[in-house]
Design goal:
The structure holds 3 protein chains of 3 kinds. In chain A, 48% of the residues lie in helices and 11% in strands. By secondary structure, chain A is mainly alpha-helical. The radius of gyration of chain A is 23 Å and the shape is globular. Chain B has helices at residues 5-15, 36-45, 106-117, 158-164; strands at residues 19-23, 26-31, 51-59, 68-76, 81-89, 95-97, 120-122. In chain B, the strands form 2 sheets. In chain B, strands 1-2-5-4-3 form a 5-stranded mixed β-sheet. A two-stranded parallel ribbon of chain B has the order 6-7. In chain B, a hairpin with a 2-residue loop joins strand 1 and strand 2 (26-31). Helix content of chain C is 37%, strand content 9%. A 4-stranded parallel β-sheet of chain C has the order 1-2-3-4. Chain C starts with a helix and ends in a 12-residue tail after the last helix. Classes of the chains: A mainly alpha, B alpha/beta, C alpha/beta.
C-alpha cells in the first residue's frame, strides 16, 4: 500500500499561476472526501481570498481497472461489470454494451424487446436526473428536494426490481434482447408512475425554478460558449444548454426512438441555470417517451432467435438437441464474434456513452474502451470555474453532473 | 459508406496519404504519426468535425511491430458524421505528437494513454499519471502487465490465504 | 439484569454504567460521509424518507472525521484511495467503528485486479461486513443493528495505570 505523499508546489508549478509561487494566493485541497464533490474527486484550488483563481482536478481515486478486467472475462461475464461504470445509469450502460455487441455480431433484436428497453432506459434517465436534482438542491442548501427526489426514485427502483430482481445493477438488457419477459404487474406499476409523476415535477419546479435564492446562486454562474464546449468534447445536457442541438436519440436513432415523438430541450446561455432548465425539461420528455412506448408495446418474443449468440429458452432445452448444444457451448466457452473493431454510442443522461470493442475472434474481448461522458465534461471545469467564489464552484460541479465511476472507470 | 462521407474521404485522400477501411459501417482512415496534427487541424477547421469523441489505444501484442494502434474518433455535430483515424505507434520508445493545441479534451486523454499504455506525447503541457498513483511502476493496460488478481478464498484454501492476507490492526 | 430485579432500586453497579454508556453510544451514532461509489447511492436511499435511518440515531452524516464515530465504507477502494482512507480513519476520535458496506469493501467484490484493494479490512479494522452488490437499504440497516448489538456487549476497560 502506498504511503500518502505530500505534493510540493514544485510538482504542480506548471499548472498554478505566478502568484501562488510568491505566496500571494493560497493553495487549498478540496479533498477526495468532501460532501459536495459528488464522489471521490480531488480539486486543488488556488484561492485569492474567496475567489478561485485556478482549479486543478485530480482524478483516479476510483479507478477500477474495468477495461483490463473485461479482457479476462467472456463477453457475457463482462456485461456484469458495465453496470458499475456509471452507477446512476445502470440500464443505460447495459444497453450501450448490448448494442455494441449486436453491431459487432450483426444480431437482430425483436420489437417488443426494443420497446421495453426504451421504457427501462428512459425510467433510468428519470431516476438519474432525480438524483442530480436532489444532490444539487442539497449543494445549494435546498434540502427538501433531496427527500422528495429519493421518494420518486423508490417507485422506479420498485419497477426495476420487479423486472430483474435487483434495484440497481440489473444486467437485464443483454445482447439479443432482454433476460426475460416483464412480469404481469409491470404495466400497472408503470402506468401508476406515469400518472403520478407530472405533478411531482411541477412541485420541484415550484420549489426551485423561480425561487430568488436559487436564481441568485445559479444565474450567470459558470458560463461556457458552444465553441468552447465542443472543443472540450462536452456532450449531453451541458452541451445542449449552450445552444447546440445534439442528441444521439434524434441524430442517430437506435432501439426504435424514431417512432416516438419528443422534443430535445436546448437553451443558449450555457450557465448553471440553463443546465437546470434543460434537465427539468428532459424529465418531462422522458415521461412522454415512456407513455408512448407503453401505449405502443407490441407483443412477441423478447430474445433473438440466433442461438449461436443468445441463449435458448429454458423450456426448449429438455426437448431440442440443438438448444442443449447451444446452451452448453454458450455456458462453457462463450460466443465467438467475428474479428474486427466497432464503436457504438448511446445517449446517457450525462452525454455520449460509447463502447469501442476490439475482437480477435475469441470468446473474450481483446480490448474494450468505454467512452464515458463525464471524463470529457469534467475537463471543462477549470474554464468554467475561473473567477468564481468557492460557493459557486460547488454549484458548478453539481450542474455538470459528473459521476466518478464514469470518470475513472 | 454514407454518401456524405465520400467527398470528405476523397479530400483527405488527396491531401494526405491515407488508407481507408470499413467494418460494419465504421469508416477508419490509416495514417502516419507525423501527419496527425495537420490532419486534425484540417478536420476541425475545414471539414466541420468539431468534436473529438474519444482517443484510445490498442496493444497489438508484445512481439508485434508496430505495437500500438491509436484511434482518434471524430464527430461532426452539424453534418451528423463520424470518422475514425488510426495511427501506428512502434514498440520501442512509443511517442506521438500532441493534438492539445487543436482539441482541448486531448489533454486528459493523452495523459490517460501515457499512464495506461506508456505512449509519450511530445509537446504535451502536463504529462503525468492520471489514473494510477504517482509512484506506480508499469503501464497497466499493456498486455505484459499482469491483471493482478488474487486467488479467491474457498473453504479448502481458507486457512492458507488467511495467514498471508495482511489485516489491519488498529 | 438479575441484581437490579432482586434488589430493587439499590445503588449503582458497574454493569449499569456500562449499559448506560453503550446505550448512549448506540442511540446517537453519527456516521461519516464516506460514500465512494454505487453503495453510496443505496446509503443515501437508506437516509431518505422511505427507509429512514434517522430513527436509529443517524440523523446527520458528518463530513468531518473529527465529528463522527462511525465510518461506513460504501464502495470500492482503489489503491490510490487507500492511504486517504487510512488517514481519515486515524483522524476519527475513539470510540470508532467501521462498517464495510457492500461486496467491494468486504472482499473486493466483482473486481479482482491491480487497481482495487481486495477488502477494506487490509486498511482499517472492520467491525461489521454487509454483503450485497449493492446491499439493499434494509440490509444496511440490519448491519447497523448488528453493530448496535456488538456495541451493547462492550465492557468498560479500566486503564492499565491507576493514578494515585
Amino acid at each position: 500500500m502506498t504511503q500518502l505523499q505530500e505534493v510540493s508546489v514544485d510538482q504542480i508549478k506548471h499548472l498554478v499561476s505566478e502568484r501562488a509561487l510568491q505566496g500571494e494566493t493560497v493553495l487549498l485541497n478540496m479533498g477526495p472526501q468532501h460532501p459536495s464533490t459528488h464522489g471521490v474527486l480531488r480539486l486543488l484550488l488556488e484561492l485569492d481570498g474567496e475567489i478561485v483563481v485556478n482549479c486543478i482536478p485530480d482524478v483516479g481515486y476510483l479507478h477500477t481497472g474495468i477495461e483490463k478486467n473485461m479482457e479476462a472475462k467472456t463477453y457475457a461475464q463482462a456485461e456484469v461489470m458495465t453496470d458499475r461504470l456509471d452507477y446512476l445509469n445502470t440500464t443505460g450502460n447495459n444497453l450501450a454494451y448490448s448494442m455494441a455487441i449486436e453491431k459487432l455480431v450483426g444480431l437482430d433484436v425483436p420489437v417488443r424487446a426494443q420497446a421495453i428497453r426504451v421504457i427501462l432506459v428512459e425510467l433510468q434517465r428519470i431516476a438519474s436526473h432525480l438524483i442530480w436534482l436532489g444532490t444539487t438542491g442539497l449543494d445549494v442548501a435546498a434540502m427538501s428536494t433531496f427527500l422528495y427526489c429519493f421518494r420518486e426514485r423508490e417507485s422506479i427502483m420498485d419497477i426495476l426490481e420487479m423486472c430483474s430482481g435487483q434495484r440497481m445493477m440489473t444486467t437485464y438488457i443483454r445482447p439479443g434482447g432482454l433476460w426475460r419477459d416483464v412480469p404481469v404487474e409491470f404495466e400497472a406499476a408503470v402506468r401508476a408512475f406515469i400518472k403520478m409523476f407530472p405533478r411531482r415535477v411541477d412541485e420541484y419546479e415550484a420549489l426551485l425554478t423561480r425561487n430568488p435564492l436559487f436564481l441568485d446562486r445559479t444565474l450567470g454562474i459558470g458560463k461556457i460558449t458552444a465553441e468552447q464546449a465542443l472543443n472540450f468534447g462536452m456532450t449531453g445536457p451541458p452541451l445542449r444548454a449552450t445552444g447546440v442541438n445534439w442528441d444521439l436519440r434524434k441524430a442517430r436513432p437506435y432501439c426504435g426512438y424514431e417512432q416516438y415523438d419528443f422534443v430535445v430541450p436546448t437553451r443558449t446561455e450555457g450557465d448553471v441555470y440553463a443546465r437546470y432548465i434543460v434537465r427539468i425539461e428532459e424529465l418531462r420528455q422522458s415521461l412522454r417517451i415512456v407513455e408512448q412506448a407503453m401505449d405502443k408495446l407490441p407483443l412477441g418474443p423478447v430474445r433473438s432467435n440466433n442461438h449461436k449468440f443468445v441463449p435458448p429458452p429454458r423450456s426448449e432445452i429438455g426437448i431440442s438437441m440443438e438448444a442443449l448444444i447451444h446452451h452448453f457451448k454458450l455456458w462453457t466457452e462463450g460466443y465467438l464474434p467475428p474479428k474486427g473493431s466497432i464503436y457504438s454510442a448511446v445517449e446517457s443522461p450525462r452525454g455520449e456513452l460509447g463502447f469501442f470493442i476490439v475482437s480477435d475472434g475469441g470468446p473474450k474481448p481483446y480490448r474494450v474502451h468505454v467512452r464515458t461522458p463525464s471524463f470529457d465534461n469534467l475537463q471543462a471545469l477549470p474554464l468554467m470555474a475561473k473567477g468564481v467564489l468557492v460557493a459557486d464552484l460547488v454549484a458548478i460541479i453539481g450542474s455538470v453532473d459528473i459521476v466518478l465511476g464514469d470518470v475513472d472507470r | 459508406m454514407q454518401t456524405e462521407l465520400e467527398p470528405i474521404v476523397q479530400v483527405l485522400k488527396n491531401a494526405f496519404d491515407i488508407e481507408v477501411s470499413e467494418f460494419r459501417g465504421d469508416v477508419r482512415l490509416q495514417t502516419s504519426s507525423d501527419k496527425i496534427v495537420s490532419l486534425c487541424q484540417k478536420m476541425r477547421d475545414e471539414l466541420g468535425f468539431t468534436l473529438l469523441s474519444t482517443m484510445t489505444a490498442i496493444d497489438l501484442g508484445i512481439f508485434k511491430d508496430p505495437r500500438f494502434n491509436v484511434l482518434y474518433q471524430f464527430t461532426s455535430v452539424t453534418a451528423n458524421l463520424s470518422l475514425g483515424i488510426l495511427v501506428d505507434v512502434p514498440a520501442v520508445d512509443p511517442s506521438l505528437p500532441t493534438i492539445t493545441g487543436v482539441f482541448k479534451n486531448a489533454v486528459w486523454r493523452e495523459r490517460e494513454l501515457w499512464d495506461l499504455f506508456g505512449i509519450k506525447f511530445e509537446g504535451h503541457p502536463d504529462l503525468r499519471r492520471i489514473m494510477m498513483p504517482d509512484d506506480w511502476h508499469g503501464h497497466p493496460l499493456r498486455k505484459d502487465h499482469p491483471l493482478g488478481y488474487e486467488e479467491p478464498q474457498f473453504t479448502f484454501n481458507y486457512k492458507e490465504i488467511d495467514s498471508r492476507k495482511p489485516y489491519a490492526k488498529e | 439484569m438479575g441484581v437490579e430485579e432482586k434488589l430493587g432500586n439499590l445503588g449503582v453497579v458497574t454493569t449499569t454504567l456500562e449499559s448506560v454508556m453503550n446505550w448512549s453510544r448506540t442511540r446517537a451514532m453519527w456516521p461519516m460521509l464516506f460514500g465512494l461509489a454505487c453503495c453510496a447511492i443505496e446509503m443515501m436511499a437508506a437516509e431518505g424518507a422511505h427507509y429512514d435511518m434517522s430513527r436509529f440515531g443517524m440523523e446527520l452524516m458528518r463530513p468531518s472525521p473529527r465529528q463522527s464515530d462511525l465510518m461506513i465504507v460504501a464502495g470500492r477502494v482503489s489503491r490510490k484511495m487507500a492511504p486517504v482512507l487510512r488517514r481519515l480513519y486515524d483522524q476519527m476520535p475513539d470510540p470508532k467503528w467501521v462498517i464495510a458496506m457492500g461486496d467491494c469493501a468486504s472482499c473486493g467484490g466483482v473486481f479482482n485486479n491491480y487497481a482495487i484493494v481486495p477488502g477494506v479490512d487490509e486498511v482499517v479494522p472492520v467491525d461489521v461486513y454487509v454483503a450485497g452488490c449493492p446491499p439493499r437499504p434494509e440490509a444496511l440497516i440490519h448491519g447497523i443493528l448488528v453493530l448496535y448489538d456488538k456495541v451493547n456487549q462492550q465492557k468498560i476497560k479500566l486503564p492499565a495505570v491507576t493514578v494515585r
